[in-house]
Amino acid sequence: MFFALRDLRTARWRFALITGVVLLLSVLVAGLLGLTAGLAHQSVSALRALGAGGADFVLPAEESGPVDLDRAALSDEQVTAVTAGTPGAVPVGLARVRLDDGTETGVSAVALGLAGKVGEVTPPAPGEVLVSPEIDDEVGAGAAVIRSGEHALRVAGAVGDLWHSHTPVVVTDLDTWRGLAPRGGAATLVAVPAGTATAVPATTIVDGDGLVGALPSHKAEATSLNTMTIMLLAVTALVVGAFFAVWGMQRRGDVAVLKALGASTRAVVRDSVGQAAIVLVVGVTGGVGIAALVGLWAAGAVPFVVSPATTLAPAALLAVLGLAGAAVSLRPVVAADPTTALGALR
Predict the structure, then answer these.
(1) What's the pLDDT tens digit per position in 27-55?
(2) Cβ atoms within 10 Å, residue 176
(3) Beta strand pairing status for 65-66 and 56-62?
(4) Is pTM beyond 0.90 here?
(5) Residue 187 phi/psi, 5° resolution?
(6) Which of 214-228, 233-247, 266-280 has the highest mean pLDDT?
(7) Which residue of 81, 223, 242, 338 has the fewest CB atoms within a 10 Å radius of its CB?
(8) Which of these, 139, 126, 209, lies nearest to 171 by C-alpha position?
(9) d(C-alpha 281, C-alpha 88), whole Å
(10) How many CA atoms lie within 13 A of 125 on its CB side?
(11) CA 247/CA 14 separation, integer angstroms
């Protein structure tokens, strides 16, 4: 590593430039992943909570597959057929409603039949609601009653940080939900124990992942952001590889001298990869750290999640891709001829 460290000292500004580029790319990748996770949480965290217990879900269907959850509605006959043939089935309602609290807060009402808990969601008593923290922020913490139209609903407690389609969630019982959303049908879907669903005409059965996939807006949003992330990862590998390819060609003479003095190709390659690793560790660690700090600072204003999946995972991936790019660019180092250092080609 002597030669690598010497290069870093003597060409410090050149290496500072590439380290800065890696740092900026790391900020973008980690920031985009944190934003993607935050938007996903505000889009489907309620659906994931419903599917956390491993249940299956009966959804209304058309020829192309499950009906979009924003317009899904089961009839009384469908709900009766599913619940009669499947012990433990729980009808679930999803609808967007507006609270008359002076600010007209839009919320998503998630309703469960009183048959029991679905995943991580438990229904309150009839006429009561459980509210998410965001609703407390809007209507005032400690509010005993919230209103929607002519309905006054007693707040029975908190449901956790749940969102559906970027609106905070209130959880209530199915009868109350039907009054809040009269156009929602008898239920939006029916949760059933895994593998026990009864086939009913015009319906389909999905698991927890399929339930999330039945929200097309989330799928489109996640696909767009994940595509940008993949492109940034590819750019990182190309930038690091191009830099070290150019740098390798510029120092072919120095490498030839090392080989003429007895350095093996393996030692020279190890030296070059170590140099790339130092640049990547400094740039990636700094960039991911900055993204995490900015995410924690801005979490109240923008949907952003700081977790191992949005910090450690991208850091490891960026490091691997950067090293791969650097390794691919080692041909000038490997091909350096020690005879050039002795003047054979001069």
Answers:
(1) 999 999 999 999 999 999 999 999 988 89
(2) 23
(3) antiparallel
(4) no
(5) -170, 165
(6) 214-228
(7) 223
(8) 126
(9) 53
(10) 4
(11) 10
